Backbone:
């Protein structure tokens, strides 16, 4: 397709895929989820700077797995199993909860820890995929008009970070030109002060330019109505977040899930309707067309597949590691993940090579 | 269109008002050029037109500033956005979004223009400023001239009747500046927009102006016909200086007018042959030696095998368009970046390998924004720190500074100095450890004619004392007055290297005004013509 996809479609897709990942600890399924995310990213990403984010998220996932496994080796509960090696053990005194450090490390323990780490890594991969596929600027343009000011602040911050890093390197160079230290305490102070001064100057210039271009004009919307609209939107978004947490976390109280999400969605809608007469218009808003529906439904299919598999075959979704067993892969979950691959076909940017060719380029 | 009646603007803590009792009327459809030295109140005047002064910057406004019938006392800048478009000095600091098209639409969104009309206006601005091919490009990937055009378009979208520009071309190369200026000229001639523009390099805009406003620096304001006002302004572009010297009347403002007036002068000087510019012979120990240097950033290579050697006493100007590799080459010489291939020797050492403390004794580098070199909160502290670090006797740095520009007070904060004074201070900081090699990147950016004259004198003196001076610059008039030798870079390669007169005189882009007027006679500066006039009866 030639136009960029609506950014919310990517976030829905990534979010639903992550929600699926939460529902399993099956190592094979989690691996497939990461592969699906990676394939879609490779097929659909552009040359934009944010599309390089995915690799970072994968590395972060790897770090999580390593930490989880190491923690398990040091502090894990000891269950009987195949002992791999034995670490020197230290018994902590009873006032420190009497935890045992070290001791025998079993294959079963490690597999379980790896599975839990992999689940977090899979969630990170899904978020990373959404991050590298959706244009953050266009996402900001979707914020409800009541939160417009906040959106602008975040947008400015987005440009601020890369500029800050350029100005740090400029000041470092200036210090070298003066024959001064660029490291150590003196160096840090000598760098921080001018960098912050420069950032402040630029912010003032930006504010002047925004002011001169009509930012902050208040139209005919009454103050009370604007405030109510902002309040509705903020409270609604919070409720929505709590609701989503309730739906996703199977351990959360059942009253939390759908009701909170419903109330949240209602409040956000009310806020948007109340604020809709605000004194701003929007230039070329991203359309929500069939492709957007297909991409979000593809994400939903993965979640549905996992929910069905959880009902039909709970033991396959959470295979036991004590004793060890080969993970079996429920068919419905696999079908769901196959559908989640659809964006790589329908939402691939037009003028680029096929996924396989792109993989080849990346490897080269 | 713009009317100032008895306007006095005083900033808090200021000794005297920035503008006092000023009157000005700019009718519809005029291009009005604002001239004056740094600190004479140019920016204050421009920012008062759309109410940034005093609403944004503070200070007290007396009298009336009215634009299109609206008084800035009652309307803050944001309520004037549909009448006045204001473009500040640094376009990079003004962008709110990341893509060209969105940046153009930003003001329209704020003005709540209906989406259909908004779409049409953005398309119009894209055409007007020739930005259509760039519409989807991230702003960060644009060149300087393109960015400046986007910044202009971003205020033009609101269809204001007045456009205010504060030094729109000061950081651009000649071609990019031409691109921006022709866009401005088009707005004036085709749409009848009223434009107020401040510019240091008068030679670029003076021929477009209908009116010149001169701020002598004492709070007064003088305005009138360009030729009339420029007779009184002390520092003027070469074309006007030549006109004054030759006594032409009316005073020519463009190269075209001057060339038509100069036929007699050319005939008179035809017999005069100026002394040929002799470069020092190649010695065994050049101060700078670069051999087959390749360098770049990430996957892109900026320099493809550049070689250069510079002798003591030599002033070399490196020219070329933005992105040709001038700054990168200076960074290599200053040891801020290492070459991928080839060798760099500066005063006998490898600048990248040297420690910072040794390097300052061999090479001094003044970067584009000279202010980054200055860290202390007063001139005295800065100079004392330099003496301490360089191990020179107390007062040495002060002596160097006074040798460059006299009369910069100890107690000033570097930020409060004029652009020229700040450059002099940065130069003093760099020169105190007595490096035999001095590098300057775009030293005349934002410098007025006075500051430029001081710089030329100072650098000439350095060359006489045996320093090797290398500067990267777009400023052809500076090169004509200062450089012995010109090296032109294009696309990372040296395409010309020779004595200034040879390289610059016949170039379409790099020829200074006097050369264009006097061609085929070999003159580059007004001073050369003056000398010749004394010798030829």
Residues:
């Amino acid at each position: 397709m030639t136009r960029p996809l609506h950014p919310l479609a990517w976030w829905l897709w990534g979010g639903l895929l992550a929600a699926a990942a939460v529902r399993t600890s099956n190592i094979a399924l989690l691996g497939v989820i990461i592969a699906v995310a990676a394939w879609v990213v490779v097929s659909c990403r552009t040359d934009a700077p944010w599309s390089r984010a995915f690799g970072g998220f994968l590395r972060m996932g790897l770090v999580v797995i390593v930490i989880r496994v190491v923690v398990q080796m040091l502090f894990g509960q000891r269950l009987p199993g195949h002992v791999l090696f034995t670490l020197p053990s230290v018994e902590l005194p009873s006032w420190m909860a009497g935890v045992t450090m070290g001791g025998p490390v079993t294959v079963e323990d490690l597999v379980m820890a790896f599975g839990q780490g992999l689940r977090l890594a899979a969630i990170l991969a899904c978020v990373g995929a959404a991050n590298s596929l959706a244009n953050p600027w266009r996402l900001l343009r979707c914020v409800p008009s009541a939160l417009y000011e906040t959106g602008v602040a975040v947008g400015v911050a987005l440009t601020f970070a890369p500029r800050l890093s350029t100005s740090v390197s400029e000041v470092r160079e200036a210090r070298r030109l003066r024959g001064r230290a660029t490291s150590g305490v003196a160096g840090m102070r000598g760098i921080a002060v001018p960098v912050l001064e420069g950032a402040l100057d630029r912010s003032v210039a930006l504010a002047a330019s925004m002011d001169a271009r009509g930012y902050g004009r208040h139209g005919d919307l009454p103050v009370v109505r604007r405030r109510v609209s902002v309040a509705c939107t903020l409270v609604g978004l919070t409720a929505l977040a709590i609701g989503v947490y309730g739906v996703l976390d199977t351990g959360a109280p059942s009253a939390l899930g759908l009701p909170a999400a419903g109330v949240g969605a209602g409040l956000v809608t009310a806020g948007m309707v109340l604020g809709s007469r605000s004194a701003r218009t929007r230039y070329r808003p991203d359309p929500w067309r069939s492709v957007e529906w297909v991409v979000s439904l593809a994400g939903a299919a993965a979640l549905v597949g996992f929910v069905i598999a959880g009902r039909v075959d709970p033991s396959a979704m959470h295979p036991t590691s004590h004793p060890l067993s080969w993970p079996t892969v429920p068919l419905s979950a696999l079908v769901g993940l196959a559908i989640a691959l659809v964006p790589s076909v329908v939402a691939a940017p037009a003028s680029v090579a096929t996924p396989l060719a792109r993989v080849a380029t990346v490897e080269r | 269109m713009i009317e100032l009646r008895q306007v006095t603007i005083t900033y808090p803590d200021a000794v005297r008002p920035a503008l006092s009792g000023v009157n000005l009327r700019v009718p519809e459809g005029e291009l009005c050029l604002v001239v004056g030295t740094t600190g004479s109140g140019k920016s204050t005047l421009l920012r008062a037109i759309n109410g940034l002064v005093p609403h944004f910057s503070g200070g007290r406004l007396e009298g009336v500033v009215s634009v299109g019938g609206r008084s800035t006392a009652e309307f803050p800048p944001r309520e004037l956005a549909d009448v006045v478009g204001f473009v500040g000095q640094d376009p990079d600091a003004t962008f709110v979004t990341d893509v060209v098209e969105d940046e153009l639409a930003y003001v329209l969104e704020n003005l709540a223009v209906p989406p259909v009309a908004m779409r049409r206006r953005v398309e119009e601005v894209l055409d007007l400023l020739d930005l259509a091919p760039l519409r989807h490009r991230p702003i960060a990937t644009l060149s300087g001239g393109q960015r400046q055009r986007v910044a202009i378009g971003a205020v033009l979208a609101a269809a204001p009747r007045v456009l205010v520009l504060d030094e729109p071309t000061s950081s651009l190369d000649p071609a990019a500046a031409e691109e921006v200026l022709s866009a401005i000229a088009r707005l004036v001639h085709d749409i009848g927009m009223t434009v107020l523009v401040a510019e240091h390099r008068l030679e670029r805009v003076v021929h477009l102006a209908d009116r010149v406003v001169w701020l002598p620096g004492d709070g007064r304001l003088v305005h009138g016909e360009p030729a009339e006002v420029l007779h009184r302004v002390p520092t003027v572009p070469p074309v006007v200086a030549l006109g004054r010297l030759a006594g032409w009347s009316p005073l020519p403002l463009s190269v075209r007018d001057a060339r038509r007036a100069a036929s007699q002068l050319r005939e008179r000087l035809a017999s005069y042959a100026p002394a040929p510019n002799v470069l020092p012979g190649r010695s065994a120990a050049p101060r700078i030696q670069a051999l087959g240097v390749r360098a770049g950033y990430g996957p892109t290579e900026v320099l493809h095998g550049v070689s250069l050697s510079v002798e003591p006493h030599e002033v070399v100007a490196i020219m070329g368009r933005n992105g040709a590799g001038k700054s990168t080459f200076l960074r290599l010489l200053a040891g801020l970046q290492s070459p991928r291939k080839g060798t760099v020797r500066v005063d006998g050492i490898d600048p990248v390998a040297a420690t910072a403390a040794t390097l300052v004794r061999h090479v001094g580098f003044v970067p584009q924004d000279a202010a980054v070199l200055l860290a202390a909160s007063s001139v005295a502290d800065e100079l004392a720190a330099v003496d301490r670090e360089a191990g020179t006797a107390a007062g040495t740095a002060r002596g160097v500074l006074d040798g460059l520009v006299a009369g910069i007070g100890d107690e000033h904060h570097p930020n409060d100095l004029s652009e020229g004074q700040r450059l002099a201070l940065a130069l003093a900081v760099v020169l105190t450890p007595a490096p035999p090699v001095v590098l300057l990147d775009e030293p005349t950016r934002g410098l007025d004619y006075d500051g430029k004259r001081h710089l030329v004198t100072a650098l000439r003196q350095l060359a006489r004392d045996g320093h090797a001076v290398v500067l990267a610059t777009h400023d052809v008039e500076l090169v004509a007055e200062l450089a012995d030798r010109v090296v032109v870079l294009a696309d990372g390669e040296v395409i010309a290297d020779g004595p200034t007169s040879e390289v610059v005189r016949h170039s379409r882009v790099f020829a200074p005004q006097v050369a264009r007027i006097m061609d085929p006679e070999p003159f580059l500066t007004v001073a050369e013509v003056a000398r010749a006039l004394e010798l030829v009866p």
The CA atoms of residues 336 and 446 of chain B lie 24 Å apart. The radius of gyration of chain B is 24 Å.
